[in-house]
Amino acid sequence: MKNSKSLLIFILAVGVFGIINTEMGIIGILPSLASYFDVSVSTAGLLVSLFALAIAFAGPTMPLIFSSMNRKHVMILVLSIFIIGNVISVFTTQFSVALIARVIPAFFHPLYVAMALSVAGSSVSEQEAPKAISKVFIGVSSGMVLGVPIVSFIAEAISIQAAMSFFAIVNIFSLIATIYFVPSIPVTEKLTYGSQLKILTKGITWISILAVLFINAAIFGVYSYLAEYLGTVTNMPSNLISVMLLIYGIANIVGNIIAGKLLADKPIVTVTAFPIALIALYLIFYPLAEMTIPTAIIILFWGILAGIGANINQYWIMSAAPQAPDFANGLFLTSVNLGTTIGTSISGMIITSLGTQEILFVGVIALIISMVFIIMRNIIYRSEAKKV
After folding, report:
1. Model confidence over 370-386: pLDDT tens digits?
2. Torsion angle of alpha carbons 11, 15, 17, 21, nearest 10°?
3. Whole-angstrom Cα distance, residue 345 to residue 173?
4. Which residues have C-beta within 8 Å of that of residue 85, sequence separation ≥ 6?
5. pLDDT tens digits for range 347-359
6. How many CA atoms lie within 13 A of 386 on its CB side?
7. Torsion-angle region of 182 (φ positive above 0: left; ψ -120 to 50: alpha; else: beta)
8. Does the pLDDT of residue 123 top 80, yes or no?
9. pLDDT class of 1 with cuts at 50, 70, 90
10. 63, 154, 217, 296: most buried by Cβ count inside 10 Å?
């Protein structure tokens, strides 16, 4: 029984890795895709920003719409859609077709991720649920940060088509494993739409959403163009850029581990200090961006901070609405992806008009705005705590 539960959680983690990697893995090859499809880098950035925008719209709605369906059937449906989209992306030479093939699966992205977390938690006892969910989140973190250097390496060593094929291969593996090893998972208890939507009547929920939106805009508005940044500003060769992306990814996972302890011991201090620390890093990075060694050191610390930020995003929204965890998880996905869309889009415009190096200030401005909402949330938190 224990082995079957471990296998289930492993399959869910790999499935989440494949879904997240399809979204984020494209970042490492944006310059190559721009050349392949004969479009500008900012236009190629639509492959990231529109994917994230679709998730932002689907985050609160898709988990609710499919909440009464057998979860194994839903997972098979989502993985199949992703495979079809990935295969089309491999063979098309038209940017518009590739864009459509990415955006349609994106609407199903939050459905799989939210469901995977829910299934993992319900597959074990209540006491063991956090551990099971954290294992699935390894897939989330790996998909967000390790997929980028892996895909970048494949593109450099083989071809763009091979790199795009990696997305499909991982999803095909997850689909086969789901069909043969995941048991039927019918829904036994369903929360009403009204009880979940009620959290939207609370101001603390909206303030938390806005804080997370701008934190993620600050992180991914810059990170989405990291390969372009290292190539044009730091003048790194493509093979070294792949190494830098890998360093960022590994550092990000280290940041996840650090964040767990920080948020458990001093959550408010951690969240409040985060934007200040990242602003300082961006401001230090700006004058040193043309130097390779300082840039590599900054990327290491940047990756750690980004890993902490990812955990802060989830904590900040889930802690604002603990009574509706599934819906809150959907809001979390919406917030971070809307932030990615806004940050990536604005940075794309900045690259076109002012130059690549200036996108660091997109991150700085977004972090300053996030601090406003974090401070507002802290004030509300304290006032509500006094009432209890």
Report:
1. 999 999 988 887 655 44
2. 160
3. 33
4. 22, 101, 102, 104, 105
5. 888 888 888 888 8
6. 5
7. beta
8. no
9. low
10. 217
